Amino acid sequence: MKLDLQTLKENAPVNIVNPVPVTVAEGDGIGPEIMQATLDILRAAGANIDVDKIDIGERAYLSGNSSGIDDNAWDSLRRTKVFLKAPITTPQGGGYKSLNVTIRKTLGLFANIRPCTAYAPFVATRHPEMDVTIIRENEEDLYAGIEHRQTDEVYQCLKLISRPGCEKIVRYAFEYARLHHRKKVTCFTKDNIMKFTDGLFHKVFDEIAVEYPDIASDHMIVDIGAARLADTPEMFDVIVMPNLYGDILSDVAAQITGSVGLGASANIGQHCAMFEAIHGSAPDLAGQDLANPSGLLLAGIQMLVHIGQPLVAGRVHNAWLKTIEDGIHTGDIYTVANSKEKVGTQAFASAVIARLDQAPENLPVASYPEDAKGIVVPKAVRRPPAQKMLVGVDVFVQSTDDVAAIAERLQTSESGLLKLTMITNRGVMVWPKGMPETFHTDHWRCRFEGQSGKLFNKAMVLELLSKIHDAGLDFIKTELLYTFDGEPGYSLGQGQ
Ligand code: NAD
To answer: Are 214 and 180 in contact (CB under 8 A)?
Structure first.
């Protein structure tokens, strides 16, 4: 269904003056069909937006742009700062960078918000009470993309977690909970193992939670948290977590609501925001009018709240809920037991438009306060620097010798102030104490520590490295060991 501007003006509940510019990408596969359906509904409901279309994704990739996005598209995004994006296809084969990661990181979209709601009994699910929002940190963690092959046998991916990154996402999660009248925020980390990186995330969570006494808070180790989320999701309300866990668990959560076709996500930054369905471009359905446009439509509703049009958002959301409740379903959620009519993409859009002034009778009515706006994105505040003291150095060495031989050569490199105190292999202590059962790779972390009370400096580290080199050992990297305000800034060896 296409509507001309005149019809829209006549039917719109708000005047189309000063429309909000929005960048739109129709994407690949089912993208153009679900975008058409979504824009038809938004416009019919009176969304006051001025669409600027950009071409990104498969065509851009195949025309030789390995990032999938060109300068004109960036110009549009920087101008409008609001992006409604249909899924794109990443061509198979090497050399093509993930456009999603590029956009999120380039535009600083640090928060990924994914509401996962069950629509039982209208959409079949084993978890009818489920109503969880997952808030995933979007820029840090193992997604920094800093990877190295260090030896013949060992490869490394750096996990980077920053205090400003944790503060922004945790504060955002509590602000989100407050705005959406949520009762509890749960934090998932693996800080029993990663005491520094995930430990920081958990610590910042605890610090910020006390600023929100009206919202309950708790923490779970991510493995048991994930198990409970998959088994009893109704026990959760809002969950905040670092990037990798959030990537995996937000898909799990969306799937168990009943269909990934219903999932929407918002990517929010200080300057820009991007709204999209969580599913991909579904090439198997492309061009057949079969795809469910709901994920993109729900993303469009989040966008309307973000740009300050909450009444239109509520109008669309309730019409959509009524359509689902009336059993008008696309093939992905159609069941003989739960549905009344199987429809295609455009017919589904027409059914939503036909219900624009209706509300659901059984599902909870969506309500958006008139003054609801996007959350004011918290700014990270830089703390005064800690007092930092150099206390040692970890020298990483590649060798297939046995550990006693390596230790002997390293000890000949010791200076008066720096002594070899420990060697680990993949984190497990193997010298001066170790177990014969421990498997050894060709990658050794050799810890040299200064003698307590005696100051040493980086020049002495360079001298040590020079001696290790002269002893014929292949050092591959170093990590300096510091204390920060007297607290060690490095982990112990496992077994130490
Ligand atoms: P997919 O999400 O496209 O499809 C998985 C399954 O879900 C398919 O059976 C598909 O038919 C079904 N499905 C997906 N969306 C649906 C909808 N709206 N209605 C009904 N059924 C739907 O995942 P995939 O097949 O792994 O990926 C296909 C392409 O999409 C790949 O090129 C991938 O890189 C890309 N992708 C893009 C994004 C994005 O742009 N945000 C996200 C994920 C995957």
So the answer is: no
